Amino acid sequence: MLLKGKAHLFGNDVNTDDIIASKYKSSTTDMLEMSKYLMGNVDPDFVRRIAPGDFIVAGSNFGCGSSRETAPRVIKLAGLSAVLAKGFARIFFRNAINVGLPVVECDTGGIEDGDQLEVDLTAGLVRNIARGTEVKVAPLPAVMLELLSDGGLSEHFKKHGTFHLQSIEEGK
Amino acid sequence: MGKTIAEKILGKHAGKNTAAGEIVMADVDFIMSVDGNRPLSIQVFREMGGKNLFDPKKFALVIDHAPSSPTATVANTLKLVRQFAREQGCILYEAGEGSCHQLLPERGHVLPGDLVIGTDSHTCTYGALNVFSTGVGVSDAAAAMISGKLWFKVPETIRFVLKGRLPAGVYAKDLILHLIGSVTADGATYKAAEYVGEAISALSMDGRLTISNMAVEMGAKAGLMEADGKTLAWLKGRAARPFEPVVSDPDARFADVLEYDVSKLTPQVALPHRVDNVVPVEEALGRPIQQANIVACTNSRLEDLEIAASILAGRRVHPGVRLYVVPASRPVQMEALRRGILQTLLEAGGILGVPGCGACSGGSHFGVAADGDHVITTANRNFRGRVANPEAFITLASPATVAASALEGKIADCRKYVR
Ligand code: SF4
């Protein structure tokens, strides 16, 4: 899978309240409506600047904090194609795969705000078109690749009715 | 090769010998889901094609994030929760019963050696009872509600060996803040934390739950402790089924073993806006505060309310300070009522909230701070916007430090009030 878009830069420890503040959940249950407030606490103009396919690019511990799956869901619904970070908080990472949002663990140090990027999920490479550089992506565990290729956990269950993960059954 | 608590519990539930790094499919003993997520786990359960829960006795819905039902949107969400519970015959904790992380241990749903998941990041709290429990999103929860299973990567473990005894005026909260400050907010990411040693043995169950509650603030998947005599005594009358405590083998392999001597520790605070922005209270003394919160699943248990009351007894909070008090559960509230603790807190100026998440998460609509306000709280997170206003500043501290600060209108050293 090849993803193309512009980088939008954030720092370390972007937490789930930064991504989507919990105050919005008492005014709406509509995820698409909520996605208008993506990064609302830190950068209220963010959603107006992004184009479909763009990337969030961050430092370490992206998505720390609450277990709210709203976070990866609104990132996806806002039209972003993936999050690239040096490191992810554990629950966010799992939630992202479960909702079918690619999360790309790689050295984001050389990427500048606005850089045009190409993310090759199959080859595990991030190409910085703007700078002509390339970084390797930490490979996803096989079980996550399986879920992602089904389009997330919901789709996986719709298809199989329960867990049907070959990589685990085969002990990979 | 010996095994850690995490390896043993996950191995047992996966029905195979396993070691850190492996991915296993494991049976879960209990699933908890709160009202605070959008979408709800019960909605994803339907979306996935779920008809019946794998076992309604092993699933609890808890209405704790917005128990005061502040808006029609929330009220309608809570209605869905109640409908689902009625249809499926699962366990439901109604508004006002308390915070999920107090209720599950208190009502005996989680027992030593168990594997438990919950749709809240602080589900790691039950580690204090020797439970491998961890926070998951609503999709993982829904998958387990259908199948009774979930996949886990068996984590490596960082072992914290805590030597010595905490001095007077220094509590479990100070200890865990110190550890988080020392390893940082992602210092234990993808790993389990294990807390052992004299300092842990000396703590009450209330104190131990405070420590395991905050394991996720160092990135950890679980915050495990051994079950000792105190644990077993605490479980008496609560546990309704047999259980099997688990300890790490002497030759188990740890990612790291970190030793601390806690006997010289002083009260600690986490300054805005990061949980690992921890300093000794001496370095924060005198910072003005406008709001003091004794709240949250971290630190509003009976012992916490009692400590705060002992400092506030016969005094009034500073005129410039609002003091919010939210007991962790109804039983905690009732016991605090019987013992006169609530009376003391209210006479001191306390404002009482519904047991649950009030004044902790922004979705609770209780104790929202104004722009520029400084809040000192016993909760577990001080992220910008956590109390629904990104223009407010949050400092984390122990109930004693919060009470002392409420009296002085500025961050204060609780030790001068502790006899
Ligand atoms: S009290 Fe606060 S930290 Fe605890 S479950 Fe509720 S919102 Fe989360």
What's the SSE blueprint?
The complex is a heterodimer of chains A (172) and B (419).
Chain A: E1 2-9, H1 16-19, H2 31-34, H3 46-49, E2 55-58, H4 70-77, E3 82-85, H5 90-98, E4 103-105, E5 116-120, E6 125-128, E7 133-136, H6 142-150, H7 153-160, H8 166-169
Parallel strand pairs in A: 1-2, 2-3, 3-4
Antiparallel strand pairs in A: 1-5, 5-6, 6-7
Chain B: H1 5-14, E1 23-27, E2 30-34, H2 41-47, E3 59-62, H3 72-88, E4 91-93, H4 100-106, E5 115-118, E6 132-135, H5 138-147, E7 149-153, E8 157-163, H6 172-183, E9 192-196, H7 198-201, H8 205-213, E10 222-224, H9 229-235, E11 256-261, E12 268-270, E13 278-280, E14 291-294, H10 302-312, E15 322-325, H11 330-338, H12 341-347, E16 350-352, E17 374-377, E18 393-396, H13 399-408
Helix pairs in contact in B: 2-5, 6-8, 10-12, 10-13
The complex binds iron/sulfur cluster.
Could you describe the 3D structure shown?
The complex is a heterodimer of chains A (172) and B (419). The longest helix of chain A is centred in the middle third of the chain and has 9 residues. Chain A is built from eight helices and seven strands. Chain A has 172 residues and is an alpha/beta fold. Chain A has a seven-stranded mixed sheet. Chain B folds into two domains: 244 residues, Aconitase, domain 3; 149 residues, Aconitase, domain 3. In chain B, helix 6 links the parallel strand 8 and strand 9. In chain B, helix 10 crosses helix 12 and helix 10 runs parallel beside helix 13. Chain B starts with a helix and ends in an 11-residue tail after the last helix. Classes of the chains: A alpha/beta (172), B alpha/beta (419). Chains A and B meet through helix 5 and helix 7 of A and strand 1, helix 3, helix 5 and strand 7 of B. The structure holds iron/sulfur cluster.
